[in-house]
From TrEMBL:
It holds the Pfam family Abhydrolase_6. It comes from Panicum miliaceum. Residues 139-382 form the AB hydrolase-1 domain. Transmembrane segments: none annotated. Residues 34-53 are annotated as: Disordered. GO terms for cellular component: chloroplast. PANTHER family: ALPHA/BETA-HYDROLASES SUPERFAMILY PROTEIN (PTHR47914), ALPHA_BETA-HYDROLASES SUPERFAMILY PROTEIN (PTHR47914:SF1). Residues 34-43 have a biased composition (Low complexity). InterPro entries: AB_hydrolase_1, AB_hydrolase_fold. This is AB hydrolase-1 domain-containing protein.
Length: 396
């Protein structure tokens, strides 16, 4: 969201008026990293409505280039790709949740991974695809199956007009992990959660309450404060203005107009990606911007961003609470923190606060800003794979 537009809106001078679909499986190519620089910038994988059989990617050779920062990816192993929708019921309303499954199917010992996207204006399963394929495609005594799930109100999931807040998102995650018919129902208490940004912190909070029992958690670029509170603070006067902005964004006609000005336009999305989402502006291609812009045009797209931007999805209210969430897991759940070299100053400070903190098993740093799993997926995949091997391979 452009700072000038936000500042103008938050100024006191501004007045405000007032059943699951069947799983589709296809043969698919998994990936592994090859140490050489990228040769070209390729278009991101198409959304589900545009997926072509036999898989999400098509190519005429055995090498797929994912663009600057991604590295060269050699397609070597045959794996399964499944996509589907799970019906989540909230307040007696059925909500279709989009998910993808990535698995190789050649290892007897398989560890299940749930990957949840970073909560943002343009959150999507696409950010985890290359990481999932890299991990799943590796050979070893311990294999991996990855399920990527879009949050309600985001990505390719349904976007109903709910009163979204951190508790609603936590409730979704708890039901996803505990429901007998969910995409991760057969994990047998051996499910690893991998999440980015607010998603990771919400998962840690739920685990600390005992509502979910993951076997490990990897928090990639964990955050806890929404864009406006982290910039303008949480004073009572600001909370009032956040409420006005939130209410305006939810109004049928004027809400779409305001959403188009602040969020749903390609210039705004490009500005965000180049300023703080990606570390290297050269990695922000027109295809990425187009893909994310399309997400903002989906029916109901403005409801979750209205809550996220104004702090309603924040799982805690202070750094002290943030650090304490991880301390509650000390000795019970292995926790990996993946910080980034070029995160925005305030977000970087929150990540650094977890270095050496109680409950944090391992702390690493990778290239990137707020979305390293998309900008530098092979670096993130390498750290995740090492953590998984250290945590579980020795137990077999």
């Amino acid at each position: 969201m452009p700072p000038a537009a936000v500042a103008a809106f938050l100024s006191p001078a501004v007045a405000v008026s007032s059943r699951a679909l069947p799983l589709r499986r296809a043969r698919h190519l998994a990936v592994r990293a090859v140490a050489s620089p990228p040769a070209s910038k390729a278009k991101p994988a198409p959304p589900p409505s545009k997926v072509r059989s036999p898989g999400l990617y098509s190519c005429s050779s055995n090498v797929l280039h994912m663009g600057s920062g991604f590295g060269r990816i050699e397609l070597t192993e045959i794996a399964e790709l499944g996509t589907g929708k799970w019906e989540w019921k909230f307040e007696d309303k059925p909500i279709n949740i989009y998910y993808e499954e990535h698995e190789q199917g050649t290892s007897e010992n398989v560890k299940n991974i749930l990957m949840i996207p970073t909560i943002s204006d343009v959150s999507t399963v696409e950010e985890w695809r290359v990481v999932a394929k890299d991990i799943v495609g590796r050979k070893g005594e311990l294999g991996y199956r990855a399920t990527i799930v879009d949050w309600p109100g985001l990505g390719y999931s349904d976007r109903p007009s709910l009163n979204y807040n951190a508790d609603v998102m936590e409730s979704f995650l708890v039901q996803l992990m505990n429901s007998p018919n969910s995409p991760v129902a057969n994990a047998d208490d051996e499910l690893v959660i991998v999440g980015g940004g607010h998603a990771a912190t919400i998962a840690v909070r739920a685990a600390g309450k005992g509502l979910i029992r993951p076997s490990a958690i990897a928090a990639v670029g964990p955050t806890w404060a929404g864009p406006l509170p982290i910039v303008f603070g949480r004073g009572s006067d600001m909370e009032t203005r956040y409420g006005l902005l939130r209410g305006t964004l939810r109004v049928p006609a004027i809400g779409w107009m305001m959403y188009n000005v602040l969020v749903s336009n390609e210039k705004s999305i490009q500005s965000q990606y180049k300023s703080h989402v990606y570390a290297n502006p050269e990695n922000v291609t027109p295809d990425i911007i187009e893909s994310r812009y399309e997400l903002t045009k989906r029916k109901g797209a403005r409801y979750v961003p209205a809550a996220f931007l104004t702090g309603l999805l924040d799982p805690v209210q202070s750094r002290e609470e943030f650090v304490q969430l991880f301390a509650k897991l000390d000795g019970d759940v292995p926790v990996l923190i993946v910080s980034t070299l070029n995160a925005p100053k305030r977000s970087k400070a929150e990540m650094e606060a977890l270095k050496g903190a109680k409950g944090v098993t391992k702390f690493v740093e990778v290239p990137g800003a707020l979305l390293p799993q998309e900008e530098y997926p092979l670096a993130v995949a390498e750290e995740l794979y090492s953590f998984l091997q250290e945590s579980f391979a020795a137990r077999r």
